[in-house]
Amino acid sequence: MTVHSGRWTLEDRLEQGLRELPFEVPPGTASVTVGLSFDGGVIDLGCHGPDGFRGWSGGARRRFTIAADRATPGYLPGELEPGVWHVWLGLHRIPPDGVPYEVTVTTSGSIPDRPDHPAPPRPERPPRRDLPAPPGMRWLAGDLHSHTVHSDGTLTVPELACLAASRGLDFLAVTDHNTVSHHPELPAAGAHAGILLLPGQEVTTDLGHANVFGGTGWIDFRRPSADWAATAAARGGLMSVNHPLSGDCAWRRPLPAEHRPRFAEIWHSSWWDRRWGAPLAWADVWRPEGVVPLGGSDFHDPAQEKTLGEPVTWVLAEGEDVMGGLAAGRTSVSAGPDAPVLLRLGDELAAIGADGTVLVRPDGRRAAVRGDRVRMPADTAGMHRLETHENEVIALCG
What we know:
13-stranded mixed sheet
């Protein structure tokens, strides 16, 4: 057994927020179990082996086990390579009087039992909406921000997939914090529920969060944000800045203009009063040449105030190529699966279920929408939106 103990101070956090505590894994080890105890503050937990990243659970757990064929959610199963490993401690919140802590590491020649989590029954899916689309394409409804037990959510991947399908979604990005341990479960869970599950991860730091979509492998949250974007692009993924104005999770990380992603989660569940124009103003400053608007519920728990699929991101896709539609910027965001929606169709806009609303163009020009299925000319570029007569945003399109 290896034990590390002491007291983290506020000065420790300010000097270096992520600490690495070493431990030795001898040859023939079948499993590693790490336990963390502390009193006060918030300390995140993760692990790194000689061959690279092995898991992250942030503040959601104080204990994890890694073995060859199984691991605590958030951590990667696999052979335990002999050598020096490190427990990661993220000093997330350390009060002025400090935080006493203890880390214990136990290596074993035995493997812990695997818990059994049967998948829920395949859900009934609501009818799909009849939305206009070019030949060979269709609008797919999805949610681009969700969490499971692999980080700080309460549902397993199959449970989340079934809930998303029951909400009428065609796709769901599963974006657990700073880990990709959920990715291997996505194909089977999606097939069972009848929904496309996109691999994703929410790259999470004290100064801002970003989603990376696609099978990119783990993105190192310790690196500068420009490296996140470059790594995502090099590996065929897409990066989006998350909830840029959401409380202490607002985006405050340095990122030079030339590295700023086109994609931004303009519509997040924290935008509860959509008469508040700050997210739109932020988008104009972030990339004056235009932002591709995305939406995400940031769903964690059925008991919370957030609802999966509120908002919905619509993607105009060929078949089920959601990533291709996102990369092309063919997106629209609405309050929910059945809410009014504004769609771009080439050089036209289609406002569906939006009678009595107001179309706002990128240059600020406004026009009343009269009718439930209305076609209007689109400006060549920029984000359009629908508002109520009280200036509440009810739909966005790129």
